[in-house]
Design a protein that fits this description.
heterodimer; A: mainly alpha; MetI-like fold; B: alpha/beta; Rossmann fold; 6-stranded mixed beta sheet; 4-stranded antiparallel beta sheet; 10 strands; globular
């Protein structure tokens, strides 16, 4: 135990740096993933067969392959075409992955909103787009907050996989620290503590948002 | 107090959902300031007819002429038509994420581009009129059913429609709340609003209606002034229906 605390204090700088990268990576990838998800959710409910197929193909591709494979294919594929910083290769890979799950969450939330809401909007002369943007989506997002929060937590933990293309985020720091000092258990244990702290913070934020939004219900 | 100007004219309207033929050769004329009441058993097609009038359902065949203009879904901007034809639903369909006043000003500001301050001023007048002057800033979830429906009426009126459609506006209400909504509708009728009302409230039909149409199995069986239709129905079907509900 005292050894653990000792290493924790010694590696404080290193892990904080890794933590910062994890946070940036998660924030960037989940923000992009949210818009990817929204885009494909709207394709899926567009009632245009071709657009629905495109969305289905994307979701099938993401769900049908492991994230680590997606990251490698994207990274080694992309560097063939463009010189892309490792960080953005990782962020885009993660976003591409989470986007599919977020698309399904948002689609489900949109479809769970009572049809009468659309009819009320349209009967007042609002266009399809106005009704979607002002009436349906705000309600759908509220309903999606718990699932989105859950998906964001998964996204944060999945960001550990980009250490395999060389990013020194939390897991990367733990891997190199563990093997340099031949002390895997301690370093991975410390990594776990950092992840737990991030996830706890996000959970509290999501709970707070849920509570605040409950006021109109 | 009917005017002579035809607000709505429907000719040989047909509507099917798949194999189900729900409206069969419907003819209907609504003059300015008329209150037309559609009655009939559930499934007789009266709500579908109403929903065709603001194009929430699209007819298969026939003519719909609104304010002198024959409306075709291909050539007309249906949003523009819907601005003129307000609708009140059985289940209110208020926007739960918006306060009462936000519900009322949504369409005027978004669709007509009216300034927010102006829309709020007009919206408050409408809410005062329907007796909800103290409820501007609450969310719909805190209101009773009757209050919700009165907000929904104010929301539709905020677009200054030429015609108001009511689709069973009191059917989802507790019995003791029906009266306040009917009173609001009566007031509206007295002010000369053109209205088409689907309802099971025969007292309202008799007192406020200028015309009553009885529908059965997708057809208009009989129509007339309320006293004629209720006291002297000519068709056997109408008689059977009236004796079953009165």
């Amino acid at each position: 135990m005292s050894h653990l605390i000792e290493v924790f204090i010694d590696t404080y700088d290193l892990f904080l740096h890794g933590l910062w990268i994890t946070l940036q990576l998660s924030a960037a990838s989940l923000l992009i993933a949210f818009f990817i998800g929204l885009f494909f959710a709207i394709l899926k409910i567009s009632n245009f067969k071709v657009l629905e197929w495109i969305a289905d193909a994307y979701i099938w591709l993401v769900r049908g392959t492991p994230l680590i494979v997606q990251i490698f294919v994207l990274y080694y594929g992309l560097v063939e075409i463009v010189l892309i910083p490792m960080f953005w290769a990782g962020a885009i890979g993660l976003a591409f992955h989470s986007g599919a799950y977020i698309a399904e969450i948002i689609r489900g939330a949109i479809q769970s909103i009572d049809k009468g809401q659309t009819e009320a909007g349209r009967s007042l002369g609002m266009t399809k787009g106005q009704t979607m943007k002002r009436i349906i989506l705000p309600q759908a997002f509220r309903r999606a907050v718990p699932s989105l929060g859950n998906q964001f937590i998964i996204g944060i933990k999945d960001s550990s996989l980009v250490s395999f293309i060389g990013l020194q985020e939390i897991f990367g720091v733990a891997s190199s620290g563990g093997s340099n000092n031949f002390d895997y258990f301690t370093y991975y244990f410390i990594a776990a503590i950092y992840y737990l702290i991030i996830v706890l913070a996000l959970t509290l934020i999501v709970n707070h948002i849920e509570k605040r939004m409950a006021k109109s219900d | 107090m009917s005017g002579n100007n035809e607000m709505i004219r429907v000719e040989k309207l047909n509507k099917s959902f798949g194999d189900l033929h729900v409206l069969k050769d419907i003819d209907l004329t609504v003059k300015e300031s008329d209150v037309v009441v559609l009655v009939g058993a559930s499934g007789s097609g009266k709500s579908t007819l109403l929903r065709c009038l603001n194009f929430l359902e699209i007819k298969n065949d026939g003519k719909i002429i609104i304010d002198g203009e024959q409306i075709e879904t291909k050539t007309h901007d249906l949003n523009k038509i819907r601005e003129k034809v307000g609708m009140v639903f059985q289940h209110f369909n208020l926007f739960p994420h918006k306060t009462v006043i936000e519900n009322v000003i949504e369409a005027p500001t978004q669709v007509k581009g009216i300034k927010k301050s102006q829309a709020i001023k007009e919206g408050k007048e409408l809410l005062d009129k329907v007796g909800l002057g103290d409820k501007y800033d609450v969310y719909p979830s805190t209101l009773s059913g009757g209050q919700k429906q009165r907000v929904a009426i104010a929301r539709a009126l905020a677009m200054k429609p030429d015609v108001m459609l009511f689709d069973e506006p009191t059917s989802a209400l507790d019995p003791e709340l029906v009266g306040e909504v009917l009173a609001t509708m009566k007031e509206l009728a007295d002010e000369g609003m053109t209205m088409v009302v689907v309802t099971h409230e025969m007292g309202f039909a008799r007192e406020v209606g200028d015309w009553v149409f009885y529908m059965h199995d997708g057809k208009i069986v009989e129509y007339g002034h309320p006293n004629e239709l209720f006291d002297n129905p000519k068709e056997e079907r109408t008689k059977a229906f009236l004796s079953s509900i009165l």
